[in-house]
Protein backbone atom coordinates (compact mmCIF):
# COMPACT_ATOMS: atom_id res chain seq x y z
CA UNK A 1 0.00 0.00 0.00
CA UNK A 2 1.00 3.65 -0.34
CA UNK A 3 1.78 5.64 2.80
CA UNK A 4 3.15 9.11 3.51
CA UNK A 5 6.28 8.96 5.65
CA UNK A 6 8.86 11.27 7.22
CA UNK A 7 12.32 10.24 5.99
CA UNK A 8 14.28 12.67 8.21
CA UNK A 9 13.52 15.69 10.34
CA UNK A 10 13.16 18.89 8.37
CA UNK A 11 11.03 20.91 5.96
CA UNK A 12 8.09 19.44 4.01
CA UNK A 13 10.42 18.05 1.32
CA UNK A 14 11.45 15.26 3.72
CA UNK A 15 8.01 13.72 3.20
CA UNK A 16 7.74 10.79 0.79
CA UNK A 17 4.91 8.54 -0.36
CA UNK A 18 6.28 5.01 -0.44
CA UNK A 19 5.08 1.43 -0.80
CA UNK A 20 4.78 -0.53 2.41
CA UNK A 21 3.00 -3.65 3.62
CA UNK A 22 -0.70 -3.40 4.28
CA UNK A 23 -1.32 -3.91 8.01
CA UNK A 24 -3.54 -6.62 9.44
CA UNK A 25 -5.81 -6.11 12.44
CA UNK A 26 -5.06 -7.92 15.66
CA UNK A 27 -7.39 -8.61 18.56
CA UNK A 28 -9.64 -5.63 19.21
CA UNK A 29 -8.46 -3.81 16.09
CA UNK A 30 -10.07 -2.64 12.86
CA UNK A 31 -8.57 -2.31 9.37
CA UNK A 32 -9.86 0.82 7.62
CA UNK A 33 -9.48 1.79 3.96
CA UNK A 34 -8.61 5.47 4.35
CA UNK A 35 -10.40 7.92 2.08
CA UNK A 36 -9.10 11.16 3.60
CA UNK A 37 -6.75 12.45 6.29
CA UNK A 38 -6.18 16.04 7.39
CA UNK A 39 -2.98 18.01 8.02
CA UNK A 40 -2.55 18.96 11.68
CA UNK A 41 -0.07 21.09 13.56
CA UNK A 42 1.13 18.01 15.41
CA UNK A 43 2.14 16.47 12.06
CA UNK A 44 4.27 19.49 11.19
CA UNK A 45 5.91 19.58 14.62
CA UNK A 46 6.84 15.89 14.45
CA UNK A 47 8.17 16.28 10.90
CA UNK A 48 10.34 19.22 11.94
CA UNK A 49 11.78 17.24 14.85
CA UNK A 50 10.04 19.17 17.59
CA UNK A 51 8.76 16.07 19.42
CA UNK A 52 11.72 13.72 19.19
CA UNK A 53 11.15 12.41 22.71
CA UNK A 54 7.76 11.12 21.52
CA UNK A 55 8.39 10.24 17.87
CA UNK A 56 11.92 8.92 18.37
CA UNK A 57 14.68 9.05 15.77
CA UNK A 58 14.02 5.84 13.86
CA UNK A 59 12.92 6.50 10.29
CA UNK A 60 10.65 6.34 8.46
CA UNK A 61 7.98 7.84 10.71
CA UNK A 62 4.37 7.72 9.60
CA UNK A 63 2.42 10.93 9.22
CA UNK A 64 -1.26 11.70 9.73
CA UNK A 65 -3.43 11.52 12.85
CA UNK A 66 -7.05 11.54 11.73
CA UNK A 67 -8.98 9.81 8.98
CA UNK A 68 -12.32 8.99 7.46
CA UNK A 69 -12.86 5.79 5.52
CA UNK A 70 -14.50 2.39 5.28
CA UNK A 71 -14.03 -0.69 7.47
CA UNK A 72 -12.35 -3.51 5.53
CA UNK A 73 -12.20 -6.17 8.21
CA UNK A 74 -12.03 -6.54 11.98
CA UNK A 75 -9.83 -8.53 14.33
CA UNK A 76 -11.00 -10.99 16.98
CA UNK A 77 -13.17 -9.56 19.72
CA UNK A 78 -14.43 -6.52 17.83
CA UNK A 79 -18.14 -5.82 18.15
CA UNK A 80 -20.23 -3.07 16.61
CA UNK A 81 -18.10 -2.55 13.50
CA UNK A 82 -18.48 -4.48 10.24
CA UNK A 83 -16.98 -4.48 6.75
CA UNK A 84 -18.44 -1.65 4.72
CA UNK A 85 -19.17 0.65 7.69
CA UNK A 86 -18.20 4.27 7.14
CA UNK A 87 -16.14 5.45 10.09
CA UNK A 88 -13.88 8.22 11.27
CA UNK A 89 -11.19 8.14 13.90
CA UNK A 90 -7.71 8.97 15.10
CA UNK A 91 -4.52 7.00 15.58
CA UNK A 92 -2.59 7.36 18.81
CA UNK A 93 0.18 9.96 18.41
CA UNK A 94 2.76 7.57 19.88
CA UNK A 95 2.10 4.83 17.33
CA UNK A 96 3.57 6.59 14.31
CA UNK A 97 6.24 3.98 13.64
CA UNK A 98 3.64 1.28 13.26
CA UNK A 99 0.50 3.13 12.18
CA UNK A 100 -0.40 6.50 10.67
CA UNK A 101 -3.44 7.85 8.90
CA UNK A 102 -1.99 9.41 5.72
CA UNK A 103 -1.98 6.05 3.97
CA UNK A 104 -4.23 3.80 1.93
CA UNK A 105 -4.99 1.64 4.96
CA UNK A 106 -4.72 2.04 8.71
CA UNK A 107 -5.20 -0.32 11.66
CA UNK A 108 -6.55 1.15 14.89
CA UNK A 109 -8.11 -0.14 18.10
CA UNK A 110 -11.90 -0.29 17.81
CA UNK A 111 -12.13 2.18 20.68
CA UNK A 112 -10.58 4.91 18.54
CA UNK A 113 -13.21 4.98 15.78
CA UNK A 114 -16.93 5.68 15.50
CA UNK A 115 -19.57 5.88 12.79
CA UNK A 116 -18.87 8.89 10.59
CA UNK A 117 -21.62 11.51 10.32
CA UNK A 118 -24.11 10.34 7.71
CA UNK A 119 -24.07 12.03 4.33
CA UNK A 120 -20.81 13.92 4.93
CA UNK A 121 -18.07 13.31 2.30
CA UNK A 122 -14.88 11.74 3.65
CA UNK A 123 -12.76 14.83 2.90
CA UNK A 124 -15.07 17.00 5.01
CA UNK A 125 -15.40 14.43 7.78
CA UNK A 126 -11.63 13.99 8.09
CA UNK A 127 -11.23 17.75 8.51
CA UNK A 128 -13.23 17.63 11.73
CA UNK A 129 -11.80 14.69 13.67
CA UNK A 130 -8.83 16.33 15.41
CA UNK A 131 -10.10 19.91 15.08
CA UNK A 132 -13.62 19.17 16.29
CA UNK A 133 -12.69 16.81 19.11
CA UNK A 134 -10.00 19.21 20.34
CA UNK A 135 -12.48 22.09 20.43
CA UNK A 136 -15.21 19.99 22.05
CA UNK A 137 -13.06 18.56 24.83
CA UNK A 138 -11.39 21.92 25.49
CA UNK A 139 -14.72 23.72 25.84
CA UNK A 140 -16.69 21.01 27.60
CA UNK A 141 -14.07 19.43 29.85
CA UNK A 142 -11.07 21.73 30.19
CA UNK A 143 -12.77 25.10 30.75
CA UNK A 144 -16.32 23.78 31.32
CA UNK A 145 -18.13 26.41 29.32
CA UNK A 146 -21.51 27.37 30.78
CA UNK A 147 -24.57 28.69 29.02
CA UNK A 148 -24.40 32.45 28.54
CA UNK A 149 -20.68 32.82 29.22
CA UNK A 150 -18.52 35.12 27.13
CA UNK A 151 -15.98 33.25 24.99
CA UNK A 152 -12.98 34.55 23.07
CA UNK A 153 -11.53 32.27 20.37
CA UNK A 154 -8.05 33.29 19.19
CA UNK A 155 -7.07 32.06 15.73
CA UNK A 156 -10.76 31.62 15.04
CA UNK A 157 -10.47 30.96 11.30
CA UNK A 158 -8.15 27.95 11.62
CA UNK A 159 -9.11 24.31 11.95
CA UNK A 160 -9.59 24.16 15.72
CA UNK A 161 -10.62 27.81 15.90
CA UNK A 162 -13.46 27.49 13.40
CA UNK A 163 -14.72 24.38 15.20
CA UNK A 164 -14.44 26.14 18.57
CA UNK A 165 -16.53 29.07 17.34
CA UNK A 166 -19.32 26.74 16.27
CA UNK A 167 -19.23 24.46 19.31
CA UNK A 168 -19.00 27.35 21.76
CA UNK A 169 -22.15 28.75 20.18
CA UNK A 170 -23.83 25.32 20.33
CA UNK A 171 -22.94 25.06 24.03
CA UNK A 172 -24.61 28.40 24.72
CA UNK A 173 -21.64 30.75 24.76
CA UNK A 174 -21.57 34.35 23.52
CA UNK A 175 -18.71 34.06 21.03
CA UNK A 176 -16.11 36.66 20.09
CA UNK A 177 -13.82 35.53 17.26
CA UNK A 178 -10.35 37.02 16.87
CA UNK A 179 -8.95 36.54 13.36
CA UNK A 180 -7.96 38.34 10.18
CA UNK A 181 -10.53 40.91 9.14
CA UNK A 182 -11.04 39.22 5.78
CA UNK A 183 -12.49 36.18 7.57
CA UNK A 184 -15.17 38.16 9.40
CA UNK A 185 -18.06 37.15 7.12
CA UNK A 186 -17.19 33.46 7.39
CA UNK A 187 -16.93 33.59 11.17
CA UNK A 188 -20.24 35.36 11.56
CA UNK A 189 -21.78 32.72 9.32
CA UNK A 190 -20.29 30.05 11.62
CA UNK A 191 -22.00 31.65 14.60
CA UNK A 192 -19.66 34.28 16.03
CA UNK A 193 -21.56 37.07 17.78
CA UNK A 194 -18.64 39.45 17.33
CA UNK A 195 -15.50 39.38 15.16
CA UNK A 196 -12.35 41.33 16.03
CA UNK A 197 -9.46 41.98 13.63
CA UNK A 198 -6.34 40.64 15.30
CA UNK A 199 -4.21 42.99 13.20
CA UNK A 200 -5.71 46.07 14.87
CA UNK A 201 -7.07 44.75 18.18
CA UNK A 202 -4.75 44.65 21.18
CA UNK A 203 -5.40 42.36 24.16
CA UNK A 204 -6.09 45.36 26.38
CA UNK A 205 -8.93 46.39 24.09
CA UNK A 206 -10.84 43.14 24.59
CA UNK A 207 -12.86 41.46 27.29
CA UNK A 208 -13.46 40.69 29.96
CA UNK A 209 -14.18 37.06 29.03
CA UNK A 210 -15.32 34.07 31.04
CA UNK A 211 -13.48 31.69 28.71
CA UNK A 212 -10.55 32.12 26.32
CA UNK A 213 -9.64 29.41 23.83
CA UNK A 214 -6.20 30.07 22.37
CA UNK A 215 -4.89 28.38 19.23
CA UNK A 216 -2.07 30.88 18.58
CA UNK A 217 0.40 30.57 21.45
CA UNK A 218 1.60 34.20 21.68
CA UNK A 219 0.91 36.93 24.26
CA UNK A 220 -0.69 34.37 26.53
CA UNK A 221 -0.20 36.32 29.74
CA UNK A 222 -1.67 39.50 28.25
CA UNK A 223 -4.78 37.63 27.15
CA UNK A 224 -4.99 35.78 30.47
CA UNK A 225 -5.25 39.21 32.05
CA UNK A 226 -8.52 39.73 30.15
CA UNK A 227 -10.28 36.98 32.08
CA UNK A 228 -13.21 37.96 34.25
CA UNK A 229 -13.40 36.79 37.85
CA UNK A 230 -13.73 33.02 37.72
CA UNK A 231 -12.57 32.99 34.09
CA UNK A 232 -10.68 30.09 32.51
CA UNK A 233 -8.18 29.96 29.65
CA UNK A 234 -6.94 27.00 27.61
CA UNK A 235 -4.33 26.85 24.85
CA UNK A 236 -3.75 24.11 22.31
CA UNK A 237 -0.45 25.63 21.14
CA UNK A 238 2.71 23.67 21.90
CA UNK A 239 6.15 25.29 22.16
CA UNK A 240 8.82 26.03 24.78
CA UNK A 241 7.57 29.61 25.39
CA UNK A 242 4.00 28.35 25.74
CA UNK A 243 5.03 25.72 28.28
CA UNK A 244 6.93 28.37 30.23
CA UNK A 245 3.89 30.66 30.26
CA UNK A 246 1.67 27.81 31.42
CA UNK A 247 4.04 26.95 34.27
CA UNK A 248 4.31 30.58 35.37
CA UNK A 249 0.53 31.02 35.35
CA UNK A 250 -0.08 28.36 38.01
CA UNK A 251 0.24 31.05 40.70
CA UNK A 252 -3.11 32.38 39.46
CA UNK A 253 -4.96 29.23 40.49
CA UNK A 254 -8.24 28.76 38.64
CA UNK A 255 -7.35 31.64 36.31
CA UNK A 256 -4.17 29.91 35.14
CA UNK A 257 -3.48 28.97 31.54
CA UNK A 258 -4.43 25.37 30.94
CA UNK A 259 -2.51 23.13 28.53
CA UNK A 260 -4.50 20.76 26.41
CA UNK A 261 -4.15 18.06 23.77
CA UNK A 262 -7.07 15.96 22.55
CA UNK A 263 -6.92 12.19 22.34
CA UNK A 264 -10.53 11.22 21.55
CA UNK A 265 -12.10 7.82 21.79
CA UNK A 266 -15.31 6.44 20.32
CA UNK A 267 -17.62 8.25 22.75
CA UNK A 268 -16.26 11.70 21.87
CA UNK A 269 -16.31 10.91 18.14
CA UNK A 270 -19.92 9.77 18.37
CA UNK A 271 -20.89 12.93 20.22
CA UNK A 272 -19.02 15.02 17.65
CA UNK A 273 -20.87 13.29 14.82
CA UNK A 274 -24.11 14.34 16.49
CA UNK A 275 -23.14 17.99 16.30
CA UNK A 276 -22.32 17.56 12.60
CA UNK A 277 -25.58 15.76 11.85
CA UNK A 278 -27.61 18.43 13.65
CA UNK A 279 -25.94 21.19 11.65
CA UNK A 280 -24.30 22.77 14.71
CA UNK A 281 -20.84 21.94 13.37
CA UNK A 282 -19.83 22.04 9.76
CA UNK A 283 -16.47 21.53 8.07
CA UNK A 284 -14.31 24.34 6.74
CA UNK A 285 -11.85 23.03 4.14
CA UNK A 286 -9.33 25.32 2.47
CA UNK A 287 -7.49 22.86 0.26
CA UNK A 288 -7.68 19.24 -0.89
CA UNK A 289 -4.55 17.42 -2.09
CA UNK A 290 -3.94 13.91 -3.38
CA UNK A 291 -1.85 11.76 -1.05
CA UNK A 292 1.08 12.06 -3.46
CA UNK A 293 1.16 15.81 -2.80
CA UNK A 294 1.52 15.51 0.98
CA UNK A 295 4.59 17.79 0.91
CA UNK A 296 2.61 20.51 -0.88
CA UNK A 297 -0.16 20.20 1.71
CA UNK A 298 2.36 20.71 4.52
CA UNK A 299 3.88 23.68 2.71
CA UNK A 300 0.45 25.30 2.38
CA UNK A 301 -0.24 24.66 6.07
CA UNK A 302 3.03 26.26 7.13
CA UNK A 303 2.53 29.38 5.03
CA UNK A 304 -0.12 30.35 7.57
CA UNK A 305 -3.38 32.16 7.07
CA UNK A 306 -5.16 28.83 7.03
CA UNK A 307 -8.95 28.89 6.85
CA UNK A 308 -10.21 25.60 8.26
CA UNK A 309 -8.16 22.59 7.21
CA UNK A 310 -5.97 21.20 4.45
CA UNK A 311 -6.97 17.62 3.63
CA UNK A 312 -5.32 14.70 1.84
CA UNK A 313 -7.66 12.68 -0.40
CA UNK A 314 -6.69 9.04 -0.75
CA UNK A 315 -7.60 7.15 -3.93
CA UNK A 316 -6.64 3.69 -5.09
Could you describe the 3D structure shown?
The chain is of the alpha/beta class. 27% of the residues lie in helices and 28% in strands. It has ten helices and 16 strands. The protein has helices spanning 41-48, 52-55, 122-126, 129-142, 159-170, 184-190, 220-224, 240-248, 266-278, 294-302, and strands at 2-6, 15-19, 29-38, 61-62, 66-74, 86-90, 105-109, 113-115, 150-154, 174-179, 194-197, 209-214, 227-235, 257-259, 285-290, 309-313. The strands form three sheets. Strands 3, 5, 6, 7, 8, 15 and 16 form a seven-stranded mixed beta sheet that branches. A six-stranded parallel beta sheet has the order 11-10-9-12-13-14. Strands 2-1-4 form a three-stranded antiparallel beta sheet, with no helix packed on it. Helix 5 links the parallel strand 9 (150-154) and strand 10 (174-179). The termini are close together.
Entry summary:
27% of the residues lie in helices and 28% in strands.
List the helices and strands and how they pair.
Blueprint: E1 2-6, E2 15-19, E3 29-38, H1 41-48, H2 52-55, E4 61-62, E5 66-74, E6 86-90, E7 105-109, E8 113-115, H3 122-126, H4 129-142, E9 150-154, H5 159-170, E10 174-179, H6 184-190, E11 194-197, E12 209-214, H7 220-224, E13 227-235, H8 240-248, E14 257-259, H9 266-278, E15 285-290, H10 294-302, E16 309-313
Parallel strand pairs: 9-10, 9-12, 10-11, 12-13, 13-14, 15-16
Antiparallel strand pairs: 1-2, 1-4, 3-5, 3-7, 3-16, 5-6, 6-8
Helix pairs in contact: 4-5
